[in-house]
Amino acid sequence: MAKKSSIFDMIGPVMIGPSSSHTAGVVRIGRVAFKLLGKAPKEAEITFYNSFARTYEGHGSDRAILGGLMGFNPDDERIKNAIDIANEKEMVYQFRPIGNASIHHPNTVKLKVRTEDEQLELVGVSKGGGIIQIKELDGFNANFSAENHTLIVKAEDRRGSISFIASILAQDDCNIADMTVSRKGKNDIACQFIEMDSGIREVTLQYLSSLAWVHEVKYIPNIRQ
User: Would residue 189 count as lying in a domain?
Assistant: First the structure.
Protein backbone atom coordinates (compact mmCIF):
# COMPACT_ATOMS: atom_id res chain seq x y z
CA MET A 1 0.00 0.00 0.00
CA ALA A 2 1.38 3.40 -0.95
CA LYS A 3 2.05 5.79 1.90
CA LYS A 4 -0.51 8.60 2.07
CA SER A 5 0.68 12.19 2.34
CA SER A 6 -0.83 14.56 4.85
CA ILE A 7 -1.70 18.21 4.20
CA PHE A 8 1.44 19.09 6.21
CA ASP A 9 3.59 17.04 3.82
CA MET A 10 2.11 18.91 0.85
CA ILE A 11 2.61 22.32 2.46
CA GLY A 12 6.10 21.37 3.47
CA PRO A 13 8.12 21.55 6.68
CA VAL A 14 9.40 24.54 8.62
CA MET A 15 12.84 24.99 7.13
CA ILE A 16 15.71 27.19 6.06
CA GLY A 17 15.95 27.49 2.27
CA PRO A 18 13.82 27.97 -0.84
CA SER A 19 12.78 24.39 -1.64
CA SER A 20 11.57 21.53 0.53
CA SER A 21 13.02 18.94 -1.84
CA HIS A 22 16.35 20.71 -2.38
CA THR A 23 16.89 21.85 1.20
CA ALA A 24 14.72 20.22 3.91
CA GLY A 25 14.85 16.77 2.32
CA VAL A 26 18.59 17.07 1.76
CA VAL A 27 19.15 18.06 5.40
CA ARG A 28 17.26 14.93 6.49
CA ILE A 29 19.31 12.67 4.22
CA GLY A 30 22.44 14.09 5.82
CA ARG A 31 20.93 13.65 9.28
CA VAL A 32 20.41 9.94 8.60
CA ALA A 33 24.14 9.59 7.97
CA PHE A 34 24.83 11.64 11.12
CA LYS A 35 22.55 9.39 13.19
CA LEU A 36 24.14 6.22 11.79
CA LEU A 37 27.67 7.44 12.52
CA GLY A 38 26.70 8.92 15.88
CA LYS A 39 28.59 12.12 15.04
CA ALA A 40 29.62 14.33 12.14
CA PRO A 41 32.02 12.72 9.66
CA LYS A 42 35.60 13.82 9.20
CA GLU A 43 35.43 13.22 5.45
CA ALA A 44 32.51 13.33 3.02
CA GLU A 45 32.21 12.71 -0.69
CA ILE A 46 28.84 14.07 -1.82
CA THR A 47 27.50 13.17 -5.27
CA PHE A 48 24.48 15.10 -6.51
CA TYR A 49 22.55 13.60 -9.43
CA ASN A 50 20.29 15.09 -12.10
CA SER A 51 18.24 18.06 -10.84
CA PHE A 52 20.40 18.30 -7.72
CA ALA A 53 23.56 18.38 -9.83
CA ARG A 54 22.30 21.38 -11.78
CA THR A 55 20.96 23.43 -8.88
CA TYR A 56 22.73 22.35 -5.68
CA GLU A 57 24.62 25.62 -5.25
CA GLY A 58 21.80 28.00 -6.18
CA HIS A 59 19.19 26.16 -4.10
CA GLY A 60 21.47 25.67 -1.10
CA SER A 61 21.62 21.87 -1.27
CA ASP A 62 25.37 22.08 -0.62
CA ARG A 63 24.74 23.89 2.68
CA ALA A 64 21.78 21.63 3.46
CA ILE A 65 23.71 18.37 3.13
CA LEU A 66 26.62 19.67 5.22
CA GLY A 67 24.18 20.91 7.84
CA GLY A 68 22.50 17.51 7.96
CA LEU A 69 25.87 15.75 8.26
CA MET A 70 26.55 17.93 11.29
CA GLY A 71 23.19 16.98 12.84
CA PHE A 72 21.25 20.19 12.12
CA ASN A 73 17.46 20.15 11.76
CA PRO A 74 15.83 21.63 8.61
CA ASP A 75 14.81 24.79 10.52
CA ASP A 76 18.23 25.38 12.07
CA GLU A 77 19.49 28.91 11.33
CA ARG A 78 23.05 27.57 11.18
CA ILE A 79 22.31 25.92 7.82
CA LYS A 80 22.87 29.30 6.14
CA ASN A 81 26.48 29.16 7.34
CA ALA A 82 26.96 25.39 7.15
CA ILE A 83 29.90 25.62 4.72
CA ASP A 84 31.79 27.96 7.04
CA ILE A 85 30.95 25.82 10.07
CA ALA A 86 32.09 22.63 8.31
CA ASN A 87 35.35 24.37 7.40
CA GLU A 88 35.82 25.50 11.00
CA LYS A 89 35.32 21.90 12.12
CA GLU A 90 37.95 20.86 9.53
CA MET A 91 35.55 18.54 7.74
CA VAL A 92 37.10 17.45 4.44
CA TYR A 93 34.38 17.34 1.80
CA GLN A 94 33.91 17.44 -1.95
CA PHE A 95 30.89 17.79 -4.22
CA ARG A 96 30.54 15.70 -7.38
CA PRO A 97 27.68 16.75 -9.71
CA ILE A 98 26.46 14.15 -12.24
CA GLY A 99 23.78 15.76 -14.36
CA ASN A 100 22.48 12.90 -16.51
CA ALA A 101 21.99 9.68 -14.58
CA SER A 102 18.78 8.12 -15.87
CA ILE A 103 18.83 5.25 -13.37
CA HIS A 104 18.42 7.71 -10.48
CA HIS A 105 15.46 9.76 -9.26
CA PRO A 106 15.85 13.46 -10.23
CA ASN A 107 16.62 14.44 -6.62
CA THR A 108 19.24 11.87 -5.61
CA VAL A 109 22.34 12.26 -3.47
CA LYS A 110 24.98 9.68 -2.65
CA LEU A 111 27.13 10.04 0.46
CA LYS A 112 30.44 8.37 1.19
CA VAL A 113 31.34 9.47 4.70
CA ARG A 114 34.01 8.54 7.19
CA THR A 115 34.87 9.17 10.84
CA GLU A 116 38.12 8.15 12.52
CA ASP A 117 36.96 4.55 12.86
CA GLU A 118 33.84 4.06 10.73
CA GLN A 119 32.61 4.65 7.21
CA LEU A 120 29.37 4.22 5.31
CA GLU A 121 27.88 4.74 1.89
CA LEU A 122 24.29 5.91 1.54
CA VAL A 123 22.01 6.79 -1.38
CA GLY A 124 19.00 8.98 -0.58
CA VAL A 125 16.15 10.54 -2.53
CA SER A 126 14.31 13.76 -1.64
CA LYS A 127 10.69 13.32 -2.71
CA GLY A 128 9.30 16.76 -1.88
CA GLY A 129 7.72 18.23 1.24
CA GLY A 130 10.77 17.20 3.25
CA ILE A 131 9.96 13.52 2.68
CA ILE A 132 12.96 11.29 1.95
CA GLN A 133 13.71 7.69 1.10
CA ILE A 134 17.00 5.99 1.80
CA LYS A 135 17.42 3.72 -1.21
CA GLU A 136 20.73 2.04 -0.38
CA LEU A 137 23.02 1.62 2.58
CA ASP A 138 26.48 0.04 2.23
CA GLY A 139 25.41 -1.74 -0.96
CA PHE A 140 22.15 -3.14 0.47
CA ASN A 141 18.72 -2.15 -0.85
CA ALA A 142 17.23 -0.21 2.04
CA ASN A 143 14.02 1.63 1.06
CA PHE A 144 13.19 3.24 4.39
CA SER A 145 11.87 6.74 4.99
CA ALA A 146 13.26 7.45 8.48
CA GLU A 147 9.79 8.79 9.31
CA ASN A 148 9.41 5.84 11.70
CA HIS A 149 11.89 4.53 14.25
CA THR A 150 14.25 2.37 12.17
CA LEU A 151 16.29 -0.63 13.28
CA ILE A 152 19.06 -1.84 10.98
CA VAL A 153 20.52 -5.29 11.60
CA LYS A 154 23.39 -6.78 9.59
CA ALA A 155 23.59 -10.48 10.31
CA GLU A 156 24.40 -13.87 8.86
CA ASP A 157 21.78 -15.09 6.39
CA ARG A 158 20.40 -17.99 8.41
CA ARG A 159 17.02 -19.67 8.62
CA GLY A 160 14.64 -18.14 11.15
CA SER A 161 16.63 -14.95 11.75
CA ILE A 162 13.85 -12.63 10.56
CA SER A 163 11.17 -14.21 12.72
CA PHE A 164 13.54 -14.34 15.69
CA ILE A 165 14.28 -10.62 15.55
CA ALA A 166 10.58 -9.87 15.02
CA SER A 167 9.76 -11.86 18.16
CA ILE A 168 12.34 -9.91 20.17
CA LEU A 169 10.77 -6.64 19.01
CA ALA A 170 7.31 -7.94 19.91
CA GLN A 171 8.51 -8.61 23.47
CA ASP A 172 9.65 -4.97 23.56
CA ASP A 173 6.13 -3.95 22.45
CA CYS A 174 7.44 -2.62 19.12
CA ASN A 175 4.99 -2.83 16.23
CA ILE A 176 6.67 -3.32 12.85
CA ALA A 177 5.29 -0.87 10.28
CA ASP A 178 7.46 -1.97 7.36
CA MET A 179 10.49 -4.14 6.65
CA THR A 180 13.01 -4.55 3.86
CA VAL A 181 15.45 -7.46 3.84
CA SER A 182 18.41 -7.37 1.48
CA ARG A 183 21.28 -9.78 1.06
CA LYS A 184 24.34 -9.92 -1.16
CA GLY A 185 23.95 -13.64 -1.81
CA LYS A 186 22.61 -16.88 -0.37
CA ASN A 187 24.19 -17.64 3.00
CA ASP A 188 26.02 -14.30 2.83
CA ILE A 189 25.48 -11.24 5.03
CA ALA A 190 21.88 -10.00 5.05
CA CYS A 191 20.60 -6.64 6.23
CA GLN A 192 17.18 -6.06 7.79
CA PHE A 193 15.71 -2.55 7.71
CA ILE A 194 12.83 -2.58 10.19
CA GLU A 195 10.57 0.47 10.57
CA MET A 196 8.63 0.61 13.84
CA ASP A 197 5.82 2.73 15.23
CA SER A 198 7.59 3.20 18.57
CA GLY A 199 11.11 3.30 19.91
CA ILE A 200 13.21 0.44 21.19
CA ARG A 201 14.88 0.02 24.57
CA GLU A 202 18.65 0.23 24.89
CA VAL A 203 18.75 -3.17 26.59
CA THR A 204 17.10 -4.73 23.54
CA LEU A 205 19.68 -3.16 21.23
CA GLN A 206 22.45 -4.48 23.48
CA TYR A 207 20.94 -7.98 23.43
CA LEU A 208 20.68 -8.04 19.64
CA SER A 209 24.26 -6.79 19.33
CA SER A 210 25.47 -9.58 21.65
CA LEU A 211 24.23 -12.38 19.38
CA ALA A 212 27.12 -14.21 17.74
CA TRP A 213 25.50 -14.26 14.29
CA VAL A 214 24.66 -10.55 14.35
CA HIS A 215 27.43 -8.38 12.91
CA GLU A 216 26.06 -4.88 13.45
CA VAL A 217 23.02 -3.13 14.92
CA LYS A 218 22.09 0.48 14.22
CA TYR A 219 19.06 2.41 15.41
CA ILE A 220 17.63 5.69 14.08
CA PRO A 221 14.80 7.34 16.01
CA ASN A 222 12.19 9.19 13.95
CA ILE A 223 14.30 11.60 11.85
CA ARG A 224 12.01 14.50 12.76
CA GLN A 225 13.01 14.17 16.40
Answer: yes
Nearest to 6 by CA among 129, 179, 124: 129
Cβ–Cβ contacts within 10 Å for residue 175, how many? Answer: 10
Q: How many domains does the chain have?
A: 2
| Contact predicate 51/99, CB 8 Å | no
Nearest to 155 by CA among 171, 144, 166: 166
Q: Say which CATH number the domain at 84 has.
A: 3.30.1330.90
Question: How far are the Cα atoms of 70, 79, 194, 198, 217 from residue 161, in angstroms, in the given order?
Answer: 34, 41, 13, 21, 14
What DSSP assignment string belongs to 103-170? TS-SEEEEEEEE-SS-EEEEEEEEEETTEEEEEEETTEEEEE-SSSEEEEEEEE--TTHHHHHHHHHH
Low-confidence ranges of the chain (pLDDT < 50): 1-18
pTM of this prediction exceeds 0.85: yes
In angstroms, the CA 215 to CA 225 distance is 27
- Confidence (pLDDT) at 15: 44
pLDDT digits (tens, 9 = 90+) for 90-121: 999 999 998 787 778 789 999 999 999 999 99
